Amino acid sequence: MTADTIVAPATANGEAALAVIRVSGPAVPVLAQAIFAKTPPPRRVTLGNYTSLEGEIIDSLVYVLYADKKSYTGEHLLELNPHGNPWLVRKILDDLISRGCRLAEAGEFTRRAFLNGKLDLSQAEAVVQVIQARSDRALQTARRQLAGSVGRAVNSLVDSLLQITAALEAYIDFPEEDLPPEDSAGPSNSLRNLIAEMDYLIATRQYSSLLHDGVKCVILGEPNVGKSSLLNALTGEDRVIVSAEPGTTRDYVEERIHVGPYLLRIIDTAGIHDATSDLEEQGIHRSLQQIESADLLLVVLDSTRQSPTLPDVVIDALHENNTVIVENKTDLVISPILEGFAASCPHVRISASKHTGLDELRSAILNALEDGLLIPDESAVIVSARHASALQDAKVSLGNALNNLNKNSPAELAASDLHAAIQSMGAITGKIDNEDMLDHLFNQFCIGK
């Protein structure tokens, strides 16, 4: 338990109907008694007058007192709900500080929850992901992690490792006992299975970025085919200047939209053609850079023209699992020649200016996301970059252990490698002693969380 008592607003600064102020630490019961002249039953919403140290009634508010070990932080916790007036909130904070509390640091409430065993480290990280989730699937993933999905998956791997380690150490600690003959084949097979499970988890790291940061979707094509009109139609606002003059877009423009349960970072790029000026050439170069790093490509064609002539580097990037061909301007005339362009990719016919075909385009994008990118379903465990790094370190140690077993090296060497793997995996759930890592992690939280 921590010796001091901390306080912080848990809601953003600004006028609102209500605000939330959190107080956590050993002094909470005494503070509640002094402020409200009574100690209410735990976990019960109570109405009372907040009375300052000087005897002034600052506000009439509701509050909840949580008992030690039965709160979010694992400590005595008081949650105050004053009116959402920033000046009132400031007066209450000043009063609590004058009573001996100190302002909490970023993420300190969740850090205390972790240190007091209320959350493992992967669950603590999920708190930020829940707050920052920008799509349904990202929120579902964060909620599963908050419920312990990553911790359970890692603990299952650790339990299997501990069984293998115990079997190896039995031969080390009791060489004279009547044990079955030492056989490395069993542990080797088990380690191979564990490495395969780790590979699967590590591979999900890419989906964490797609779900939380958004799928990078690049709109590309020749000049004046309607790329900017498409971006405007998808976002529902005139985000980009549209002109009949070719080459209006000289740099890429990024917006965020939702398609189904996914967040898309949709990027409008400069038209790809033979540049006639340095400025155009720079814009096209940036377009090619965006295409190279894209998760999904929307290739816009002009239905009134023949199939486009795009650079080989662009054509080579088009595949049926990462590309949707958007035949635009179908309100004017439809050219059957376009069906032969990138024939293996799905084609959708739209009119960006008339807003027709957009539902079909969204369906095609959704199919591309779920079939082409193979994003796991909502029940899958998805790890973060930090988790994947720890799993990769553990995998290296398991590989070393497997190599030692295959060479019939002393069992002590393989056992040492297994202990190193267990230590690496402990970094995921927090069974480690690394103050610098914890400081870096919780500094990403907002104050009051």
What portion of residues belong to β-strands? 15-25%
Helix/strand/pairing class, anyone?
alpha/beta
Most strands sheet = 6 strands, mixed
Tally of separate domains: 3
CATH fold title of the largest domain: Rossmann fold
Uncertain segments of ≥5 residues (pLDDT<50)?
Answer: 176-182
For the biggest β-sheet, the strand order reads 4-5-6-3-1-8
- Estimate the global geometry from the Cα principal axes: flat
The CATH class of the largest domain is: Alpha Beta
Fraction in helix = 40-55%
Number of helices: 15
List keywords for this structure.
15 helices; Four Helix Bundle (Hemerythrin (Met), subunit A); Gyrase A, domain 2; 449 residues; Rossmann fold; 3 domains; alpha/beta; six-stranded mixed sheet
